[in-house]
Design goal:
The chain has one domain: 3-Layer(aba) Sandwich (Rossmann fold). Helix 1 packs across helix 2. The chain is α/β, with parallel strands linked by helices. A 6-stranded mixed β-sheet has the order 3-2-6-1-7-8. A two-stranded antiparallel sheet has the order 4-5.
């Protein structure tokens, strides 16, 4: 079985801070509360999973710091497809300014249906394709050939740390998936997909926030 753990990085703001729309071009570090969230994630992973075989993060420091706080000493791989989306003219702007420009309805469409507002540089179809190709690569990498047939190797657990704009499209690794009934992942939360010999990818749990 392949277990794909999907974590959203920890907070980049603490209470009292001005909340910004943090995208690909705004490379902020974790805040104090974000580091605590990452540590909570680490405790959860160590309690629930015997071993994390691979850790894959984006180029952004908030994802790398989350992985390092969660699993001290971990060696991680960097995959640029996991970088946050580019919020265009709204990248790095105060969230109140963003809502004033695009309107609450446009933001709701993004949050609930993955439809980007005008001015954001994001291609949902491309992100979905990247996720599907990434998931297939995990399967292909863990297959062995025996007597002319392929089978999965022993259990493999992979942790991916990314941002909300990318994470929201991960459910499309599951056949006939939809994101409309799933809440967006909270900072510091983790979701889980599994692949076994008997079936294709399936969602085990979504948006679990370690205490």
């Amino acid at each position: 079985m392949i277990t794909l753990l999907l974590a959203r990085h920890g907070n980049t703001f603490d209470p009292g801070d001005i909340i910004l729309r943090v995208g690909k071009k705004t490379d902020l570090p974790l805040s104090n509360s974000g580091r605590k969230q990452a540590q909570n994630l680490g405790h959860f992973l160590q309690e629930k999973y015997t071993k994390i075989d691979r850790v894959i993060v984006s180029q952004l420091q908030r994802t790398q710091q989350t992985a390092a706080e969660a699993l001290p000493g971990v060696r991680f791989e960097i995959n640029p497809f996991l970088d946050e989306i580019d919020y265009g003219v709204d990248d790095g702007k105060a969230e109140s300014e963003v809502i004033q420009r695009i309107g609450e309805q446009a933001l709701k469409q993004w949050e609930e249906r993955g439809i980007p507002p005008q001015g954001w540089k994001v291609e949902p179809e491309k992100i979905i394709q990247d996720w599907q190709e990434f998931a297939q690569c995990l399967v292909d990498k863990n297959k062995v050939r025996e007597s002319g047939a392929s089978s999965l190797q022993i259990n493999t657990t992979v942790l991916v740390v990314t941002s909300n704009g990318i994470a929201r499209f991960a459910p499309f690794v599951v056949e006939e998936a939809s994101i409309e009934n799933l809440p967006k992942m909270k900072t510091g939360a983790v979701s889980c997909f599994q692949f076994t010999q008997e079936r294709s990818w399936a969602l085990d749990y979504w948006n679990l926030l370690p205490a």
